[in-house]
Every structure is written in C-alpha cells, then in structure tokens.
Amino acid sequence: MAKREARGVGRRQFLATTGLAGLAGIIASGRAPAFAQAQPKKLVFAHITAEPESSAIAFNWMCQEITKRSGGALLAEFHGGTLLTKELEVMNAVKAGNIAMGDPGGAAATVFPEMGVFLVPYLVQSYDQAYKMFNGKIGDALDKQFQEKYKLKTLLFYDYGFRHFWNSKRPIVEPKDLRGLKLRVQPAKVFADTINGLGASAVPLPWGEVIPGAQQGVIDGADLPIVNILALKAYEVSKYCSMTFHNYGPTLASINLDIWNGLSKDQQKLLLDISREAQAKVRDLTESVDNLQKAKELLEVKGMIVNAANVEAFRKVAQEKVWPAYQKQYSEMWEQIVATKV
After folding, report:
1. Whether the domain at 38-159+250-287 and the domain at 164-248+290-339 fall into the same CATH topology
2. Under 8 Å CB-to-CB from 323, ≥6 apart: which residues?
3. I need a surface site. Which of 37, 58, 97, 323 has the fewest CB within 10 A?
4. Whole-model pTM above 0.85?
C-alpha cells in the first residue's frame, strides 16, 4: 500500500508540474516523458586569463566541443579572465559547486600542496618525462587523492612550460647574476625557496599585481614560461628574458565531484576524451615556443633581449640549496619522479 501510494504521489506531482495540455503534447509527439526531455545541463568553466593564452585557447575549444558532441545535452561555457580573476577564487567556486569546472592556473601548488614536489627546480627535466608521469600512474594516483580529499575530479593535467627569468636590470647567465634582484613569486613556499635558493630575493605577489609591481619598482622582474611572458606582456616592463628552465609548472583542470557524479557514464567518457584532446592542444602550444630560437623570434620583436643561461650551473645550486628539504618531505613521490625514465 505504501509503495502504491508513493507511486501515486509521484504521478500527481508529475501531472501538476506538466499540466494536462503538456502531457497531451508529450503523448501526441511520441516523446519519452519528463526526465528524458530535461533542459541541457550547464557546465561553466572559469579560467583566469583569456585567449590568446595557450590554455585559454584549449579550454575554449574544449567547451565548444563538449556542447557540440553531447548533442545539446551539455552546455559548456568558457569564461576566460572575466567571471573570476583570481586562481583561489576559481577553485573555491568549483569546490563549492557554484561553477562546474575550473583550474588553479599557475597556483596549483597553493591549492594542491601535493603538487609542490613537481615544482622543485630541475627535478622534472623534460616534457617527455612530465607527460609520462601525469598521463600514467602518478596522474591516476593524484586524481584519486584529489577526489577523496578535495571532492574534485581531475579532467586533465597540463602545464605552462618551464619557467625562465625576466627582469629590467640585466641578463641572467650565471647564478651570481641573480644577486640583488627582487623577483615576484607565487604564494607557494616552493617558489620562494627556488628564487631565494638560486640567489635572488623572492617577493610574493598574486598574478594580477605582477605588472603594476614591476612598473612601481616593487619587483625587478619575475619568472614565467614563455607563453605567459607573452600573455602578460612582460616585455612592456622588462628588457631581459633569460632561458634558465628552472621550474616545470604542472597544473590541472578539474570538475566538481558531485556534478561529475551527476553525469551519465557516456557523458563522463565524453568529457574525459575531449579533455585529453585539449591537453594535447595546450601542450603543443606551450612546448612549441619553449626554446631559445622561438623565444628570440617572439620576444625580440617586442624589444626584449633573450639569452641562454648556464643551466648546469643553476641545477647544481638547486641541488645543493633547495633539493634536500623537499627530498625529505616528498620522499615517496620523489623516488617515483626520479624513476620515471623516457
């Protein structure tokens, strides 16, 4: 009796919501009732920068493809540099479910302290090594951990490339050239330890304050991948770009776990397939400009002087000054990184 009554209430609610005319229309059209005719599920993706920044290009494409390939069942909207303008704001909104998808940009180690080990200078030595890690067992383990700990499902790992120094004072060729320079870092300990360990003075600043800080003399420069030196227009406030390749900058795009679990299995597979394609796009855009020849081509026309640095000398300083504390802190993951051969 209780079960029949429960079903009866469900039917009455359905009729009250749909109305007789609406129900008649559904029957006449031969469409499936109610739930199959739901409105598209809206998935908002927030990112802190707009195109032509490399990941913004890939994520905008990704959202368009999700909408198109889902046959209208999913409506993915990309907002680059407009909806939320700070990395932590984006990720807090995704964690709360206020928006569906987002990424911490270059602040991954702030949001996910577990990512800090990959930022230890010169520990990750190549793109091939990084891709093998994040598309393999290490990436799978981090995804599982982030679901359990942060209620976030990882859609893809990506990166902005290796970091290089830019400043308004002088070319950086040897570690001694960093002495006396005030360089902006992100608010994660590993970035400050890197800059201080290599010989400069770290000044923590959020992304939006980098250019004003350089203009006002708060900083002499910073470190960024080539794609972001271009996107941020650092060439307008600095003269020198020095290719030191000192930090590999991994990050990720994620979706709120409850929203993810509310998708069908086919929709989940679709998102992961398209995310992997977007990953390939952003990696190509980032890696293709991260070499001396391309950096010279892109930045010297903007007025910068681009130089090669003594990478081995910087690596030696990093191993002596920065590595010991992090090797102890991240001993298990450290061994996995070192063991990843290409």
Report:
1. yes
2. 120, 123
3. 37
4. no
